[in-house]
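Exercise 7b. Backbone tokens:
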């Protein structure tokens, strides 16, 4: 008797084309070189995910929350980060095992009465998220260079075309650009911490959930 096929192989076999077929391909990882070179090669996708947590919209929200509530909301930031780590790990596993993204799997596994509302909610979430990034970047350009908000919005929209162009150059070019941005942000963040000289005891205490998080109106 022939043994049943492996679940992952069977899923991939019946699922059709992979997610984003125009860019779906393996990225070469060097066999030669030291441990760090191989580690950084595998960390490339992590840079692309990490930029979602270090964008101007998140910075503006964090600054507003910190100015109003001090370190109280650090517990919320820690909890949401742990939730995000769990969700990202699940996304990686389902993507590697099936070769499909979440949208494709929802379309294939759920009836239309469920798939269409999920699509609508995803579109609303994308619009809401991108709006924060767009406005946050435009405000940053105005603060740094005096560029009017309207022009800043158009300049920010050009980022999408830059990403598309870099995809044609290869995924490593895109990873290098994102890594450069993250390194710049980390450097600025470190300098700001040194200049602000925070109360580290209060910072650590902020990671302990406070009752005021749910009672403050």
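Sequence design result:
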């Amino acid at each position: 008797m022939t043994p049943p096929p492996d679940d992952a192989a069977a899923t991939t076999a019946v699922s059709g084309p992979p997610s984003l077929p125009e860019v779906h391909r393996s990225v070469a990882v060097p066999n030669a070189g030291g441990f760090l070179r191989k580690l950084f090669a595998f960390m490339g996708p992590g840079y692309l995910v990490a930029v979602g947590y270090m964008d101007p919209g998140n910075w503006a929200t964090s600054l507003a929350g910190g100015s109003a509530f001090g370190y109280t909301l650090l517990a919320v930031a820690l909890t949401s980060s742990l939730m995000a780590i769990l969700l990202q790990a699940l996304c990686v596993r389902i993507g590697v095992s099936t070769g499909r993204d979440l949208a494709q799997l929802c379309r294939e596994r759920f009836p239309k009465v469920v798939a269409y509302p999920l699509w609508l909610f995803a579109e609303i979430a994308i619009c809401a998220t991108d709006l924060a990034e767009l406005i946050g970047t435009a405000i940053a350009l105005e603060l740094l260079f005096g560029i009017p908000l309207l022009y800043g919005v158009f300049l920010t929209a050009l980022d999408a075309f830059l990403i598309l162009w870099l995809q044609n150059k290869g995924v490593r070019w895109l990873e290098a650009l994102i890594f450069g941005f993250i390194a710049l942000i980390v450097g600025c963040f470190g300098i700001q911490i040194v200049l602000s000289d925070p109360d580290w005891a209060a910072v650590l205490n902020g990671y302990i959930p406070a009752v005021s998080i749910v009672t403050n109106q």
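Instructor comment: The longest helix spans residues 112-145. The radius of gyration is 21 Å.
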